[in-house]
Amino acid sequence: MRLRQCNFGHWFLHWRSLLIVAMVAALSGCASMGNDWSSDANSSSATNPRAAKAPRVDLSKQSVSSLTAPSSNLWLRIQNGFAMPELNSPLVITETRRLAARPEYVQRSMARSSRYLFYIVEEVNLRGMPTEIALLPFVESAFNPVAKSTAKAMGIWQFMPATGKDFKLTQNVFRDERRDVLQSTHAALDYLQRLHRQFGDWQLALAAYNWGEGNVAKAIKRNQAAGLPTDYLSLKMPRETREYIPKLMAYKAIVLDPKAYGIVLPELENHPYFVAIDVTRDIDVEVVTNLSGLTPEEFRNLNPSFNKPVILSAANQQILLPFGHAEVFQENLKNYSGPLSTWTAIRVPATESAEQLAKRLGVSLAVLREVNAIPSGMRIKAGSTVLIPKPSTKSTDVPEHLAENASLNLVKPAPAKKAAAPATAGKKTNPAPAKTAQNSTKSSVKTASKPPSQQKPVSTDAAKSAKTTTAKAGTTPQ
Predict the structure, then answer these.
(1) Which residues, at least 6 apart from 239, have a Cβ–Cβ distance to it below 8 Å?
(2) Measured between alpha carbons, how far is 289 from 329 in angstroms, rounded to an integer?
(3) What is the pLDDT of residues 144-196, one digit of tens each?
(4) Is 140 a catalytic residue?
């Protein structure tokens, strides 16, 4: 197989006015099966309109570190972009002291953020937003890319399932884009900008991100009806939302003067940490880690959205690799002669057990259960998509309709019917007495006294929030 194109790329450096150096990587490689791993500039532009408008840099001829930036220190760049007004609340002092009392926790969060902050700051600057917004994942998830709340909010921006769908974040068998660093960042900033347009104030926009835009709008109307101010500090809101912005302001205070609080910020250079590589053929995660020299944990830190051991090309995916590892991956891929992917997917035509499916397809039952997380005793519902080892005779990739719409639905088997006990010879059996009207009434009353759950669903307004109040309780990673 030939190397068709070697234009690397993704991400940006910043002049006084934004100079965007897009680096959407298109790597090509060799495999004995004749599978091209390549991407033309036109196809890349079609899937990433922002890249189409940006100049490209060729890593084989130019080094990112040679490009000039206004400062080599990303923290200084963040400080210079602070634009939100100070919050005159004693809660800011309380939250700042709380963080200062936990320096190890703060430093772990700061260390995690080093992988993602440059990209987030670039996006925030590109949209003309205050750089305080780039610190919000500290409050949401402590920059833990696999953070999951008790209410099923996920990722560094903690999107709830419904809100993720509203912002076109795919959630299926193969990936959950609420955990995708690039996609979730775009969605979160889109959402925050929409809220800012709605409320005209960043503090109210952040309150709505946490509490729900409908709830904030109602609180504003209540204050207006009572002739009260409608700013963030004047609204009546849950404790979590009341403390939400003070927590953000506490991180701002630490970034502005870490020494004052006994915190040591990690050194962050003002250039990209990773590059994004277009996936143009299905490829196993293990192949990527082997060829790039990354550990599985390092790969997952940058690519937490992938749910399975294979990354699908039909889904227009990208993999993120640290700069040096991306170059190693490119070089090793040229000389790689093995299969890129050892997995494929099928749709189950009829409801059946894992045992039946494994026997029918001739695959290991243990592997089928493990890779698809199918508990013992559960049946696979018709229409479900399952991942199976790719037969040696199959070379095609997983088709787009499965890559984009895969779901796995499991059902419990129907309870076995009890066989009637044979009558004992020579022994009379007494039939059960017929129910009297009183017995029937009692039975009916008993049934009526235990109706299905009548718990009210979350209001439509609250459901539009990226999270709910319960989503936050005790979920911040340690």
Answers:
(1) none
(2) 9
(3) 999 999 999 999 999 999 999 999 999 999 999 999 999 999 999 999 999 99
(4) yes
